[in-house]
């Protein structure tokens, strides 16, 4: 880990929370002397109402430093613009930022270069996530969505873009495992996939996306989840068709993530039926002699004799679709944090 002489970090530090702790912790880990910029009351007021006075915000910052880095060198400055003293300090070496303010640091460096000053090393921390996998933020704390530790204060609302129990049950089971500390409000919603009844190839992704987005918008949920079962022809083996479940997670900020299940191969005769317009559901009913098979183990359960079921594939697909949610900074997700100083 590289150590710098003088490191800057800045913020409003309203409702001091775990995200602020992560910023300060990184700054003290890499800097011999840390310069902490706290926005003035005038600047903070431009972000909205209910922001704590600077005396309270400063008190929480100092209390945290005394508890965790009592013998370290630091100074606190009040800032009245987006850059603060980092714009003109010649002896400054690095700046620690969050994913939301990384773009501000890039603009800061361009300004410093134009002034004949060296650019700063930009150290970007990861998002600090709340129970609901959205970032902890002062705005969300003020709104009563979460507390300072990131605990969700009311149920996470999830819309599932299907009423088919073979899709609904695995989604509910996975969400309960994913969000053990939070209450859940889960609603299955009948929606149109917008693709053929038996999607082939990329139609499967579009169908899952349409289901997730439509379900979320229909009830104003935090997350919408769509699952679509599709046939994927092998690029090189003409008679090889693989079945995958594709899941899409669409959140209230408009961020999207996809995941797929393990795949299994259809027989040549089944593939020929698909090409003639039949669906997997049609084939499952014919070979099993059951009308309820698609709402239960599905064709995969029948073929595998219960070793793998449709429930298993749906569970795996949704689980995979949530993978990006644990590291949203790598996917350039936008969480709509309002910055009155961000000039487009």
What brief labels describe this structure?
11 helices, 5-stranded parallel sheet, 2 domains, single chain, 344 residues, Rossmann fold, Maf protein, 6-stranded mixed sheet, alpha/beta
* Low-confidence sequence ranges: 338-344
Count of discrete domains: 2
* CATH class membership of the largest domain: Alpha Beta
Classify the beta-strand content into a percent band.
15-25%
Radius of gyration: 25 Å
- How far the N terminus sits from the C terminus, by CA atoms, comes to 34 Å
Give the % helix.
25-40%
Largest beta-sheet details: 6 strands, mixed
Structural class: alpha/beta
Query: Any guess at the CATH architecture of the largest domain?
Result: Alpha-Beta Complex
Order of helices and strands: EHEHHEEHEHEHEHEEEEHHHH
Could you name the CATH topology of the largest domain? Maf protein
| Chain-averaged pLDDT | 93
How does the overall form come out from the CA principal axes?
elongated
């Amino acid at each position: 880990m590289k150590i710098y002489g003088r490191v800057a970090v800045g913020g409003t530090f309203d409702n001091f929370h775990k995200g602020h702790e992560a910023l300060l912790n990184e700054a003290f880990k890499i800097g011999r002397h840390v310069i902490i910029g706290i926005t003035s009351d005038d600047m903070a007021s431009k972000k909205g109402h209910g922001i704590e006075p600077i005396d309270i915000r400063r008190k929480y910052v100092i209390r945290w430093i005394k508890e965790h880095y009592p013998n370290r060198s630091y100074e606190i400055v009040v800032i009245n613009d987006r850059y603060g003293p980092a714009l003109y300090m010649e002896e400054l070496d690095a700046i620690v930022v969050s994913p939301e303010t990384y773009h501000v640091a890039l603009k800061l460096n361009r300004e410093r270069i134009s002034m004949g000053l060296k650019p700063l090393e930009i150290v970007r921390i990861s998002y600090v996530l709340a129970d609901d996998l959205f970032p902890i933020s002062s705005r969300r704390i003020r709104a009563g969505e979460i507390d300072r530790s990131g605990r969700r204060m009311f149920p996470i609302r999830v819309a599932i873009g299907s009423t088919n129990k073979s899709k609904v049950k695995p989604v509910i089971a996975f969400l309960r495992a994913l969000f053990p500390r939070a209450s859940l409000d889960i609603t299955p919603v009948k929606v149109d996939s917008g693709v053929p009844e038996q999607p082939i190839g990329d139609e499967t992704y579009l169908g899952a996306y349409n289901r997730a987005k439509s379900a979320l918008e229909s009830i104003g949920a935090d997350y919408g989840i769509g699952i679509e079962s599709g046939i994927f022809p092998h690029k090189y083996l003409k008679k090889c068709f693989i079945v995958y479940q594709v899941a899409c997670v669409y959140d209230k900020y408009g961020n999207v993530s996809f995941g797929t299940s393990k795949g299994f191969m259809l027989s040549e005769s089944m593939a020929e039926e698909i090409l003639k317009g039949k669906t997997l559901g049609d084939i499952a009913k014919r070979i099993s002699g059951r009308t309820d098979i698609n709402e239960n183990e599905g064709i995969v359960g029948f073929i595998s004799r219960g070793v793998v079921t449709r429930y298993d594939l749906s569970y795996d697909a949704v689980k995979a679709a949530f993978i990006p949610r644990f590291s949203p900074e790598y996917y350039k997700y936008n969480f709509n944090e309002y910055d009155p100083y961000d000039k487009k």
